[in-house]
TrEMBL record:
Domain called Thioredoxin: residue spans: 6-165
Name used for this protein in its record: AhpC/TSA family protein
Organism expressing this protein natively: Tritonibacter horizontis
InterPro entries in the cross-refs: AhpC/TSA, Thioredoxin-like_sf, Thioredoxin_domain
Molecular function as annotated in GO: antioxidant activity; oxidoreductase activity
Database matches in Gene3D superfamilies: Glutaredoxin
Length: 177
């Protein structure tokens, strides 16, 4: 299943999801006094590459937070599956779960169906990374249809610093009309 891809310089949708820490949160809004938002969509418990990527996110988190960037990781997994995977990640960021197919489509993600031999219960989102500014406008968009094509998180942190610093008044890349 495919969906219309999210364009840079558009407003990210307000999506409310449950988080493992309890309650729900709008994944488009930073919290704790932070100004920007990084939303990282991962495939779910069945994906060992996702576990490694989320562990790398833990390592990059101090750099992101120091730049005023809040982080949330999101999947379509159930709470139990997300908890099981996060036991190997020990996340220092919020983890949201229960992403629905309409929400995946609204985010512009690639969606895969369960396949034989995989530990998957339902359709799931392929990887996505979205960086939103303080107005909720997409500054960085990376959507993939495979788990092994993802941006380097250290470079994302450096790019956000560049975007928020010397390039803060420049137009968003990829928006030529």
């Amino acid at each position: 299943m495919t969906s219309e891809k999210r364009a840079a310089r558009t407003v990210f949708p307000a999506l409310s999801l449950p988080v493992l820490a309890g309650g729900t949160r709008d994944i488009s809004k930073p919290k704790d006094g932070l100004e920007w938002m990084l939303v990282l969509v991962y495939r779910g418990k069945h994906c060992p590459l996702c576990t490694t990527y989320l562990q790398q996110l833990n390592s990059t988190l101090p750099d992101l937070n120091a730049q005023g960037v809040d982080v949330v990781a999101v999947s379509a997994d159930s709470r139990d599956r997300a908890l099981a995977q996060m036991a190997d990640v020990d996340p220092k960021f919020d983890v949201a779960y229960g992403l629905t197919i309409p929400q995946m489509q609204e985010m512009g993600l690639y969606i895969s169906s369960p396949r034989n031999g995989m530990d998957v219960e339902a359709p799931f989102a392929e990887p996505g990374l979205f960086v939103l500014d303080n107005a909720g406008v997409l500054q960085i968009v990376d959507i993939s249809n495979v788990p092994f094509a993802r941006p380097d998180l250290a470079w994302i942190a450096k790019g956000i610093g560049f975007r928020r610093g010397p390039m803060k008044d420049a137009p968003v890349n990829g928006t030529y009309a």
